[in-house]
Amino acid sequence: MFFIGLDDTDTLDSRGTGYLARQIAATLAVDYPVLGVTRHQLLLDPRVPCTKNNSSAAILLNADGDLDPIALLDRVRTLVLDGHQPGSDPGLCVAYAVPAAITEFGRRAQRQLVTQDEAQALAVAHDVPLLGLGGTKDGIIGALAAVGLAASGDDGRYVLVGRSRELSGLQPVSTLLTAGISAVQTLDAQPVTSGWVQTDKLRPARRGGRPVAVVEWVGGHWRPLKLD
Q1: Positive or negative: CA dihedral 69, 72, 74, 76
Q2: What phi-psi label fits residue 95: left (phi over 0), alpha (psi between -120 and 50 degrees) or beta?
Q3: What is the pLDDT of residue 99?
Q4: Whole-angstrom Cα Rg for the chain
Q5: What pLDDT score does 13 carry?
Q6: What pTM, to 2 d.p., does this model score?
Q7: What are the residues whose beta carbons fall under 8 Å from the beta carbon of 25, sequence distance 6 or more?
Q8: How is the chain split into domains, by residue range?
Q9: What's the CA gap between 170 and 63, in Å, rounded?
Q10: How far apart are CA 48 and CA 71, in angstroms?
Q11: Which CATH number fits domain 2-158: 3.80.10.10, 3.30.70.2200, 3.30.1540.20, 1.10.10.10?
């Protein structure tokens, strides 16, 4: 699996990085199976410049190791440059085999301040392509973090997976499963196999490397939770 990390492609008056990631994913889906787009929450701190909530995005691409990461990087770089907002600070990362050190960097970026220098040094040490495409280039921090967190399999939530964004209103559990969600379960990991789920703005969590809808029982149906 290839992981494509994006961050800081937007401004206060524009759609977020997640939107651009979904647009890029749709373009790549013509040639490769796209397993989803995930959102990853980073540190919320006044010292961290961000447009809204300091989150980054990762595109999960199902392609074998024969795909040239540099060719993929060049293609996605063009898409980011065409789609990012002027005045933003876009960062881009593409990785196939993601070392534990990059996942740990992502975890640290959720707990404490990290720097561009740290991100660049780590990317160079592990031969992971990482590019700042404009502005302050601060987006490289979130782009690298997104790759590490998505690769962990247990962080973030899907803003795109299968046909989940096409669902609306109350739907049976079986419909969620056929739409591309791997499982429905409660917060304490109890499986949910029947009943109706409110699917408006359904954003399943990435857990165990799969999209899992985590729900709670409210007013006669299951309501999904948004987890980070």
Answers
A1: negative
A2: beta
A3: 95
A4: 17
A5: 60
A6: 0.92
A7: 34, 36, 37, 59, 160
A8: 2-158, 162-224
A9: 34
A10: 32
A11: 3.30.70.2200
76 touches 32 (CB < 8 A): no
Q: Which residues in 11-85 belong to E strands, given as ranges?
A: 34-41, 55-61
Cβ(134)–Cβ(88) under 8 Å? yes
Only one residue has tokens 């013509």, namely 30
The pLDDT score that the predictor gives to residue 145 is: 97
Match 């490769």 to its residue by tokens: 32
Q: List the beta bridge partners of residue 211.
A: 206
Tokens 């789609």, residue located: 83
- The label of the residue with tokens 């909530």 reads 53
- The one-letter code for the residue type at 180 is G
Q: Tell me which DSSP letter residue 13 carries.
A: T
Region of residue 62 (phi > 0: left; psi between -120 and 50: alpha; otherwise: beta): beta
Percentages helix, strand, coil for the chain (3-state, rounded to 5) are: 30, 25, 40
Low-confidence stretches of the chain (pLDDT < 50) are none
Class of residue 212 by CB neighbours under 10 A (exposed 0-12, middle 13-18, buried 19+): buried
SS3 at position 44 = coil
| Pairwise CA distance, residues 210 & 193, whole Å | 17
